[in-house]
Each structure stands twice: as structure tokens, then as C-alpha cells.
């Protein structure tokens, strides 16, 4: 019973919270609609600016406002004029007359120039004239021309023209159609000037000895200092205090109070609202004690207290919403991160869609391949026999007997003859005997079938080439689809939050006496750790690989090495280091090669390359023949191989791509072999792809293992059937790859492979370069001459032993 009541109570509270949240959102939406969409905020601003007067007699604000509204929100001009006149009437009849006539003058000027091109450039001049003309007429009628009055009139006109340019950047912020999510510094300052000008309209409003303009100005400083920090806070204080002091000289000291309080409040913003409020209290006390008496300090403290109360009552949601528009704030950074995340997500989705398109295209090509079945082959055979029959049996007197009465027997004889001729130029004795006994014109039939068979075979060869081309395109499209799919996954992969590890690493490095500037942990996956670090150092002496990397190795329980160093070129600078997981194994390579007859240019080419994901590739290509052409062909093969493999495409697709490119590039009979080995440096697995190349050998102690396959050289046929041989390597293994010139060694040796394996087994050294040199030297010395290009590529797999051991450290106590 108690549990039921508790659940009902929780449900009631939840429903009440949801209802209050709904009402709150509805109220905020209604307030936004009235203030922004309907323009009531502009009307309130016009009301206050209508009575805003500085230097005792000039009022440049209201004309600047009407000029900006006329340009940006022309539909609100009548309401703004009405409220400005109402506001001026609360100040005095002279202010009312000036505001009304100045606005009327501006509207008349606007009516005259609104059809001109680029009349926006005339707005400052129009505002200047709208201020000067009514004053000039009034001074003339009243005969009140004085140098001081003329100077004030000119100052009013110039200020009004300048404020037009400022308000034109502020009024759009009050528009319902604002799309930019970030305010520029100029827009922030212009908005502050607009708000300070509005506060000028509250001068003279007091409750006992407390001035409303001081309460609101200090609240404005608190609000913006809490959002933007010391820079924004001090700027608000200076601008607001300056504008208010122009309106009332007695408020001149307030500029120092507001500026100092904004600076202190911004510096103390980490203390939340309390810290900013303390900054205002301290500023009020210091400036009040320094510039006044106890009688003036008491009202000032009361104004500060009321401003703090208003600030405390301000909802956090309002502050966060406004902070999104201020560069440098946490809310703005989060907004930018969300925007970038949306861009990444959209990009990833589009890349995935492209991947799906390529995959669908690949499947469609394979679908067409699947349609070439037995029925299609039978149909083509029938077409062939119909062409032969048309040229032989059509005019024969036994046509009716053969094809009408004995169709099956005739068809079988024709089919057997066709099959027999496909295998050779002449039919076998049995087939010839059957044809002679059955047909009255056997030789004509055989000759005609031979002739038609050449066209039939050519057509079949063409269809086969088209089919192979389709398969090649399908493999290419599938490979591109896989690469794009992997790329989409990389785009969507966000940097994970590693707060605990960041604290531990920072604490450990601080124990070394190094001052960290930034620490970015991108991933801590086993075997794929990625960390960027920036630290301050007086003089760099290799602290990265000697101290930090060993320390990280102990913390993360994995061998960490420095992959990139960016050291400051001067003392007392910052150093940027990148750390990644060390591979479990390393490959040490050695190569020896010689050109035919001791020449300088060899038709053999070799390459060793590091691929992504911790893989290492070794390749030898042997161009057909010798000399420059063979060298260029083998180099082109390896260049294409490296570019395609490093793009992320699988080895089989890469080989097929190279084969198709080389076979379609030229009509010359220029072919090349390819011997490729790809070794995973994390688990020592290896893949061997041999296209027309000689066998490779793995030496493991006294044991020799042979790696071979039977693929034709690249470029000979359109479709390469790539056979992959996989082997598990072990530390200390020697991988020996060679071109065919090595196996064409001494002529007096019958079994060259056995002789070569014996020589390699008997070698006492395990150094890759020494093994390569000894093999090449042994073959040349035994043969007595270099009759072909020779290349030996040797690699040894070893454990990766870091240069520096892990450094244990005293872990931070919980």
C-alpha cells in the first residue's frame, strides 16, 4: 500500500514538473513573440531613447534609432516614432518638439532619397541633417544663435551620424530573423553602446535616494562580466559609465566604479554569481570610499545590493542562451562543437550513401555476370549452327530429310563436328567418318564450319573481355565502397573523454618538473594509443623519448614512443610531441641487386613501404627484358601498387587494378612480374601475393619454407586470378624474396632451388644486408657472368625493444 502511494506521489510530482516546464516554455515563446516578433522591445527602446539627453541639451540617440529602424525594419517605423514622441514628452516640451520635428525631417529626406541607388550610404548624412535643420530653424526664429549653441548642434549632428553606423549593427540583433550563431566583437560593443544609450533614458528616475540608471547599469555589468569575463566586463563598465557621465556630469566617477567592478567581476567569474557579485561590492567600496563620503556611499551600496538581487534572480537559462553568442565562452564552444558534430554526421552520412551507391553498382555488375549461364551458351551455339546451315544445307537436295525427318541426328552430328573443330584445325577420324557417311557434301560442311568458327570464337573472346571488364569494374567499385565506408566510420569517431587518465598523466608529468600546456588524448585502444602533448621547457634535451614516453608506458601498460617532435627554436619555448603505441615487431631489411652485364639500369625494381594500421609491405617487380623500358615498367608497377595500397584498398583489388591499368595502357607486349609480401607488425601474420614471380623463402633457424604460387605476370591476361598465401612469422625469421635472375644461376647445377636453399641454410650470419650480399655474390661467382637482372630483398622480423625502459612513478593517492 505504501509503495503504491509512493509511486502515485512520484507520478504526480513528475506530471506537475512537466506541466510547469510546458507553461514556462509557453511563456518564453509568448514573450519572444511579443518583444521580438511584434517589435515591442523596439518600442520600449524608442520610449527610453526619446527622453535620453546628454550634455544637458543634445539628443542624438533617437534619430539614429529611427534611421536604423527605417532601413532594417521599415514596418515598425510608425510605432517607433509614436513611442519616441511619448518618451520625449516625459522629459519636457522642448525635447518633444525637437524629437517630433527631427523625425519628421528624417522621414521627408527618406521619402526623397528612397528611390536612389545605394541610399543606405546616405543614412548618416540624413541623420546629421535631421538633427541640424530643426535646430537651425529654431535658433533662427528665436534669434538664439550663439557659438556654444552652434557647437552643440554640430556635435549632436556628428554623434547622430556616428550612432547610425553603430545602431545598424545592433538593431539586427533584435530582429526575429537572426541566423548567425556568433557575435563579432564589433557587434558586441555596438550592442553595449545601444544598451548604455537606453539606460540614459532612465536618468532622473529615483526611488528615494536610489537611482534606477545606476541599478540597471551595475546589473548590466554583472550580467555581461559573468558571461564574457574580464574583457567584456571592463568594456561594458567603460562604455556604460562614459555614456551615463555625458548625460549627467555627477555620474563621472561611476565610469571608474563600473569599469573596475566589471574587471574584478570578470576575473572572479569562476566563483559563479557569488564571485562576480563580490567584484561589484569591492569596486563599490573602493571607489565610494576614495571619491565620496559616507552619505554618498550608503545609496551606492544600496544600488549595488539591488543590482545583485536582480542578478541573482536572473534565470540561468537566459544567461546560457546569451553566452552562446559570445566568443570564448564555454557555451559558445559547446555550440561550435555541436555544429561541427552535425557537419561530421552529415558528411559521414553522405559518404556512407556514396559507399552504398558504389556497392550497389558493384552488385549490379556481378548480377550481369551471373546471367551468363548455360542457356545463353546454348543459344549462341544454335545461332552458330544456323549460320553454317544457311550456307551449306539451304541449297542441298537432302535438306528435307536431314532437318525435317532426322533433326536430332543431324543436330548431334553438327554439334560433335563443332566441338571437335574447336579443339583442333581438323576433325578426328571418327567424326570425319560420321560426317562422310551422313552428309553428301562433307568437305564443304567442314570448310564452312571452320570459317564460321573463327568468327564465333572471335565473338566469344570479345564477350569474355567484356565480362572480365565488368568483373574488374565490380571489384574496383567494391574496393572504393569499402574505403569510403571505413572513412565514414573514421569521421563519426569522436574523441573519447579520458578525464581520469588525463589527471593521472598530468600529475605524473608534473612530478618530473615539466609544465604541461595542453594534453589531448584521442584514443587509448590497445595497440592504437594516440596522445598529443604540449609542454613548456627551458632547454629541450630529449625529454620526450627519454622521460615522458617511458612514463606513459608505465601508466598505460604499453610501450609508447614519440612519433613527432616540434621543438621551439628558442629557449623557454613550448614543445609539441605526439605519442603512439609502438609496434610489437619491426622489420630490418637489406637489398642487393645487379643489372645485366654489369650495367647501370636494371629491369628489376624493389620497394619497402609502411602501410596504415601497422602493416609493412615488401615488393619486387621484374619488367620484361632488360634496360630502360623494363625498368620503367617495373617502377610503374610498384608506384601504382604503393599508391593503391596506401589508399586502403585490399591487396587483391590492388593487384587486379594494376593489371588492368597496365594491360589497357599500351598495346605493346610489355609485362612485369610482382612479388608482394605484407606483414602485420602487431601479430606477425603475413600475406604473400606472387604474380609471375619466383618462389620466396622463409628461414627459421635451420628450417627453410618455400612460398610460391602459379599466377601469370601482370599485363598478359585481362583477368588475374590472385592467389594469396598466408604464413605466420616468428621473431628472428628471415624473409628472402628474389627476381628470376637469381634462380637462373649456375648452368651446371640441375636443381637450382635445392642448391640455393642449401646455401642460405649454411649461412652463419642473420643480418639481412649480409645475407642479400652473400646470395648475390655466390650466384654471380658461381655462374661467372651476369646474364640477367638480379635482385635479392631480405627482411628480418624482430621484437621491437624500446630504446628506454618504462619509468615507474609514485601514483597519486586516492
Automatic annotation (TrEMBL):
The keyword Calcium does not apply. The keyword Hydrolase applies. Residues 588-797 form the PPM-type phosphatase domain. It holds the Pfam family SpoIIE. Keywords: Hydrolase, Membrane, Transmembrane, Transmembrane helix. SUPFAM superfamilies: PP2C-like. InterPro entries: Bact_Sigma-Reg, PPM-type-like_dom_sf, PPM-type_phosphatase-like_dom, SpoII_E, SpoIIE_N. Coiled coil: none annotated. The chain crosses the membrane at residues 40-72, 92-113, 122-142, 148-167, 188-207, 219-244, 251-268, 274-292. This is Stage II sporulation protein E. It comes from Thalassobacillus devorans. The lineage of its organism: Bacteria, Bacillati, Bacillota, Bacilli, Bacillales.
Amino acid at each position: 500500500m505504501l509503495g503504491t502511494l509512493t509511486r502515485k506521489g512520484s507520478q504526480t510530482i513528475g506530471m506537475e514538473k512537466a506541466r510547469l516546464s510546458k507553461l514556462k516554455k509557453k511563456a518564453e515563446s509568448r514573450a519572444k513573440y511579443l518583444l521580438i516578433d511584434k517589435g515591442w522591445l523596439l518600442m520600449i527602446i524608442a520610449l527610453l531613447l526619446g527622453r535620453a539627453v546628454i550634455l544637458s541639451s543634445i539628443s542624438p540617440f533617437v534619430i539614429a534609432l529611427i534611421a536604423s529602424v527605417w532601413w532594417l525594419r521599415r514596418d515598425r517605423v510608425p510605432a517607433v516614432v509614436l513611442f519616441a514622441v511619448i518618451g520625449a514628452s516625459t522629459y519636457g516640451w522642448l525635447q518633444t518638439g525637437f524629437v517630433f520635428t527631427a523625425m519628421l525631417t528624417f522621414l521627408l529626406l527618406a521619402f526623397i532619397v528612397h528611390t536612389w541607388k545605394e541610399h543606405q550610404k546616405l543614412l548618416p548624412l540624413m541623420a546629421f541633417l535631421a538633427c541640424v535643420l530643426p535646430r537651425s530653424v529654431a535658433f533662427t526664429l528665436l534669434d538664439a544663435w550663439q557659438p556654444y549653441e552652434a557647437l552643440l548642434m554640430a556635435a549632436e549632428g556628428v554623434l547622430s551620424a556616428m550612432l547610425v553606423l553603430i545602431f545598424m549593427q545592433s538593431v539586427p540583433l533584435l530582429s526575429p530573423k537572426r541566423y548567425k550563431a556568433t557575435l563579432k566583437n564589433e557587434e558586441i560593443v555596438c550592442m553595449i553602446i545601444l544598451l548604455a544609450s537606453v539606460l540614459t533614458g532612465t536618468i532622473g528616475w529615483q526611488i528615494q535616494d536610489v537611482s534606477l540608471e545606476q541599478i540597471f547599469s551595475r546589473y548590466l555589468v554583472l550580467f555581461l562580466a559573468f558571461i564574457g569575463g574580464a574583457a567584456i566586463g571592463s568594456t561594458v563598465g567603460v562604455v556604460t559609465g562614459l555614456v551615463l557621465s555625458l548625460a549627467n556630469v555627477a555620474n563621472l566617477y561611476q565610469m571608474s566604479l563600473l569599469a573596475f567592478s566589471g574587471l574584478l567581476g570578470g576575473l572572479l567569474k569562476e566563483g559563479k554569481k557569488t564571485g562576480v557579485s563580490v567584484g561589484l561590492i569591492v569596486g563599490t567600496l573602493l571607489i565610494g570610499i576614495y571619491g565620496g563620503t559616507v552619505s554618498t556611499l550608503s545609496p551606492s551600496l544600496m544600488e549595488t545590493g539591488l543590482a545583485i538581487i536582480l542578478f541573482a534572480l536572473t534565470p540561468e537559462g537566459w544567461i546560457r542562451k546569451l553566452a552562446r553568442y559570445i566568443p570564448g565562452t564555454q557555451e559558445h564552444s559547446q555550440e561550435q562543437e555541436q555544429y561541427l558534430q552535425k557537419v561530421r554526421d552529415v558528411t559521414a552520412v553522405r559518404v556512407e550513401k556514396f559507399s552504398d551507391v558504389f556497392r550497389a553498382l558493384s552488385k549490379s555488375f556481378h548480377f550481369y555476370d551471373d546471367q551468363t549461364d548455360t542457356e545463353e551458351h546454348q543459344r549462341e551455339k544454335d545461332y552458330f549452327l544456323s549460320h553454317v546451315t544457311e550456307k551449306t544445307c539451304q541449297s542441298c537436295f537432302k535438306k528435307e530429310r536431314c532437318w525435317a525427318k532426322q533433326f536430332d541426328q543431324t543436330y548431334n552430328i553438327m554439334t560433335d563436328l563443332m566441338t571437335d573443330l574447336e579443339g583442333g584445325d581438323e576433325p578426328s577420324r571418327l567424326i570425319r567418318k560420321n560426317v562422310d557417311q551422313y552428309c553428301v557434301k562433307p568437305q564443304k560442311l567442314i570448310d564452312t564450319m571452320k570459317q564460321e568458327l573463327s568468327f564465333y570464337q572471335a565473338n566469344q573472346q570479345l564477350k569474355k573481355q567484356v565480362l572480365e571488364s565488368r568483373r574488374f569494374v565490380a571489384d574496383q567499385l567494391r574496393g572504393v565502397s569499402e574505403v569510403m565506408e571505413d572513412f565514414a566510420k573514421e569521421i563519426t569517431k569522436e574523441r573519447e573523454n579520458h578525464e581520469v587518465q588525463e589527471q593521472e598523466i598530468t600529475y605524473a608529468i608534473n612530478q618530473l618538473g615539466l609544465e604541461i600546456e595542453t594534453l589531448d588524448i584521442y584514443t587509448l585502444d590497445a595497440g592504437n594509443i594516440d596522445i598529443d602533448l604540449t609542454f613548456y621547457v627551458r632547454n629541450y634535451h630529449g625529454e620526450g623519448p627519454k622521460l615522458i614516453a617511458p612514463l606513459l608506458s608505465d601508466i598505460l601498460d604499453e610501450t609508447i614512443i614519440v612519433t613527432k617532435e616540434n621543438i621551439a627554436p628558442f629557449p623557454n619555448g613550448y614543445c609539441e610531441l605526439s605519442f603512439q603505441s609502438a609496434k610489437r615487431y619491426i622489420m630490418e631489411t637489406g637489398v642487393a641487386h645487379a643489372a645485366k652485364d654489369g650495367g647501370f639500369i636494371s629491369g628489376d625494381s624493389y620497394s619497402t613501404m609502411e602501410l596504415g594500421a601497422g602493416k609493412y609491405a615488401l615488393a619486387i617487380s621484374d619488367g620484361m627484358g632488360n634496360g630502360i623500358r623494363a625498368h620503367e615498367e617495373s617502377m610503374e608497377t610498384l608506384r601504382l601498387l604503393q599508391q593503391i595500397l596506401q589508399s586502403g584498398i585490399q591487396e587483391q583489388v590492388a593487384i587486379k587494378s594494376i593489371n588492368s591499368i597496365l594491360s589497357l595502357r599500351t598495346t605493346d607486349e610489355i609485362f612485369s612480374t610482382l612479388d608482394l609480401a605484407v606483414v602485420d607488425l602487431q601479430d606477425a601474420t603475413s600475406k604473400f601475393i606472387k604474380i609471375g614471380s619466383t618462389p620466396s623463402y622463409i628461414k627459421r633457424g635451420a628450417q627453410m619454407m618455400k612460398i610460391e604460387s602459379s599466377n601469370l605476370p601482370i599485363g598478359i591476361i585481362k583477368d588475374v586470378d590472385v592467389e594469396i598465401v598466408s604464413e605466420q612469422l616468428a621473431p628472428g625469421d628471415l624473409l628472402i624474396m628474389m627476381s628470376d635472375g637469381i634462380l637462373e644461376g649456375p648452368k651446371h647445377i640441375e636443381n637450382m632451388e635445392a642448391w640455393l636453399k642449401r646455401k642460405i641454410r649454411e649461412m652463419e650470419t642473420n643480418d639481412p644486408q649480409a645475407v642479400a650480399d652473400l646470395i648475390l655474390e655466390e650466384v654471380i661467382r658461381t655462374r661467372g657472368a651476369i646474364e640477367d637482372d638480379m635482385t635479392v630483398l631480405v627482411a628480418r622480423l624482430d621484437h621491437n625493444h624500446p630504446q628506454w625502459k618504462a619509468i615507474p612513478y609514485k601514483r597519486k593517492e586516492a
